[in-house]
Specification:
Length: 716
């Protein structure tokens, strides 16, 4: 095989692993609007089929005609959808439409009300009928199915009796009303007036269900009426209001139906309740309640309407049409139910999409190798602070009063004080998983909290929110404005807080999958306290972790865990906005970075690379099979039981290393802070905070003074 063929093969593999269609599909499956894809596809397929088989079916004139015929049914379907979402049902919607149709004509021809009066009186009639259903279902706790079935029977009988008496009156009278005629055959921008009204109601209904307290409460009641009541929701009142709203929607359809037909008979609205029920369930509104949207109801409604109209226009007999519709709807509902149950499973199976990620050759870490990474035992005898009193202090920091803080997995910030740091107290309870920490100029402790964002703790222990979202990436399917996993942070001289959001696809409990995936899912984010705005500075970054503002404040150092590299991003000076690689070949996975007293930097390695791990990162297929088929504790992963801290300078030259090769005291080291001649050690899985004495350093140096100056001296 020629070298050219090899090059093209290698390029193809890189392209497939970096731009997998599985990634797009997995994100689509998680979108709520993608859930009704089956009924939506059926709707489009019906439109295409009937356009190809029925002359002029696809023309605008025919579409406008169909919309005029569909709109009244759309109002009825919408009323049914609201009742289903509440956990109930309204079998009287077709009868309410018939009653409203009669009422509108009665108010117009017999009582001779003006058009606006007819509309208001008819809406009131529908609301009263719906209110009867709502009172019985909500306050008297009657069964919705039986209650509305009885209402259906009573209304049908009443309308039939009234039709016998007034049908001749309606047929022989006429009204000279331009407004009434416009409601029957008028248009808005060439769209039938009733269809335009339906669209307006749908937009209001969408906002009502998805953005209002009413919609949230309605969905909660449908999901669990008992839980909603315990949450303080007034269930009875909500159900009453829902049935009133359903009745009024049917009344709107009745008004337009009356204006269009100007007649009434015993067949008005017959069977519409069952067609509406079929339509909304087909569209994805759950019969069990607590799930559905107005748009799904309309998709289902359009399917039912198009099937009925299209088959009739193809000349198929009525009984055959009914049978065909029944079979098609049964199949579609079955597929849709199966899809709804398995959509989440399908997304889960294809969500992890490893990409090819070749790493630079790792330097030797063998003892006596002569490299600055060589194994040693400098951390083995580290002093233990707070032994068994802290759970996973991922980051550690000291204030200007020499008190030691640790961010722990139980959502607390633990503080140790006293001459030997033996006094333990819970300084603050933030919740989430506190990770990186830094003091600002006002001595507030700013904390990156996984799953929550960036929070602050005042000197008196009061917790406040800094930010929990950033600017959304406009071209991404998933809304990435929420800060999913704020990891580490640092503060620039101008007060801006730079922090890493290491993954926009995974949570704290599954963030190792992001490393296994090897995709640039993270970002560098900045919060400006002057403007109180948060913005994404760098997007598409490979698991950004440690963040450290340089000693001169002109750049931000970023540790990329999955790439095993350190980057420098310039925030000031001639190179502002430029990103460059500072260290290219770390022997392990980089974590937190912090300043050292001599103008250099400390870096923690949370895991150590191995040849097998490097090989796995070059083979996405291997990692995919591993994630799917192998238990997590048997994955090919970096060595996590070797604690290691490095020191490097502004040029990216590694000057030395500190190891605990036993991994007993300080495995999975994630952070370190230098303070007055000591180096304090934190770890994600440790049960202590370590401390070692450093030789040849400035024993008066503190991180707080390096950032903000000595406040005691400044005040003097």
């Amino acid at each position: 095989m020629s070298s050219t063929t090899l090059d093209f093969t290698s390029f193809g593999k890189r392209l497939r692993s970096s731009y997998s269609p599985r990634l797009l599909l997995s994100e689509l499956l998680l979108k709520q609007w993608f859930e009704p894809i089956i009924p939506f596809t059926v709707m489009i397929a019906l439109g295409v089929y009937f356009s190809a088989t029925i002359p002029d079916y696809g023309t605008f004139a025919n579409a406008a005609s169909l919309l005029r015929l569909f709109a009244e049914f759309g109002f009825v379907a919408l009323g049914m959808a609201l009742c289903l979402i509440s956990g109930g049902i309204d079998l009287s919607v077709g009868a309410i439409l018939a009653a409203s149709n009669f009422a509108a004509l009665y108010y117009l021809y017999v009582l001779e009300l003006p058009t606006w009066g007819v509309i208001l009186a008819t809406l009131a009639t529908g609301g009263v009928i719906g209110g009867v259903n709502g009172a019985l279902v909500g306050y008297l706790k009657a069964r919705p199915f039986l209650t509305t079935l009885v209402t259906l029977i009573i209304l049908r009988a009443s309308v039939n009796l009234l039709n016998e008496r007034y049908a001749t009156v309606f047929a022989t009278n006429s009204v000279d009303s331009a407004a009434w005629d416009y409601m029957g055959d008028g248009t808005v921008l060439r769209i039938p007036i009733n269809a335009a009204a339906l669209l307006a109601v749908l937009l209001v209904g969408h906002v009502l269900l998805s953005r209002s307290r009413y919609g949230w409460h309605l969905t909660a009641i449908g999901a669990s009426r008992k839980a909603a009541r315990h949450a303080g929701i007034r269930v009875e009142r909500m159900l009453f209001a829902t049935y009133v709203l359903s009745g009024m929607l049917c009344a709107v359809g009745g008004v337009f139906y009356a204006a269009r037909q100007n007649s009434t008979d015993s067949t008005t609205g017959i069977g519409w309740e069952f067609q509406a029920l079929t339509a909304v369930v087909l569209g994805g509104v759950s019969l069990a309640g607590g799930k559905g949207t107005v748009w799904r109801a309309m998709i289902g409604g359009l399917i039912v309407f198009m099937l009925t109209n299209g088959l009739v226009r193809l000349g198929i007999p009525g009984y055959v049409t009914s049978a065909v519709i029944g079979v098609i709807l049964l199949a579609a509902v079955g597929i849709d139910v199966k899809w709804s149950k398995n959509r989440g499973k399908a997304a889960q199976k294809i969500y992890v999409n490893p990409a090819r990620l070749p790493l630079a050759d790792a330097p030797s870490i063998e003892a006596g190798s002569g490299t600055p990474y060589a194994h040693n035992d400098r951390l083995v005898n580290a002093e233990a602070i707070g032994l068994n009193q802290v759970e996973g202090p991922e980051d550690v920091i000291l204030d200007r009063h020499d008190r030691l803080y640790g961010s722990t997995r139980d959502g607390n910030i633990i503080r140790f004080s006293g001459p030997n740091l033996e006094q333990r107290e819970v300084f603050a309870h933030i919740g989430g998983r506190p990770l990186g920490m830094q003091f600002d100029a006002s001595e507030n402790l700013i904390v990156a909290v996984a799953g929550m964002g960036v929070y602050g703790v005042k000197p008196d222990g009061t917790v406040f929110k800094v930010t929990d979202e950033t600017s959304r990436t406009w071209y991404k399917l998933n809304d990435d404005s929420r800060l999913r996993m704020a990891d580490d942070l640092d503060i620039a001289p101008d007060g801006k807080i730079y922090f890493s959001d290491c993954t926009t696809r995974y949570e704290m409990t599954t963030n190792t999958l992001d490393v296994m995936e090897g995709r640039p899912n993270g970002r560098l984010v900045c919060y400006d306290p002057a403007t109180k705005k948060t913005s994404t500075v760098l997007n598409h970054f490979y698991f950004p972790n440690g963040i450290c503002v340089s000693h001169d404040g002109k750049s931000v150092l970023i540790a990329s865990t999955s790439l095993c590299k350190i980057f420098r991003y310039w925030v000031a000076g001639p190179a502002k906005g430029k990103l460059e690689v500072l260290i290219d070949d770390l022997p392990g996975l980089a974590d937190n970075i912090n300043r050292a007293s001599d103008g250099t930097y400390w870096l923690a390695l949370v895991g150590i690379r191995s040849p097998a791990f490097d090989l796995a990162m070059r083979n996405p297929g291997l990692r995919l099979r591993m994630v799917k088929q192998v238990p997590i504790d048997e994955w090919l992963a970096p060595g996590m039981n070797h604690g290691c801290v490095l020191k490097f300078n502004e040029s990216g030259e590694v000057l030395g290393s500190w190891w605990d090769p036993s991994g007993v005291s300080h495995s999975t080291l994630t952070s370190m802070r230098e303070h007055k001649g000591y180096l304090y050690l934190g770890g994600l899985e440790n049960n202590r905070i370590g401390r070692i004495r450093l030789d040849g350093v400035d024993e008066t140096w503190t991180g707080y003074e390096a950032y903000w100056g000595d406040k005691r001296r400044d005040r003097g």
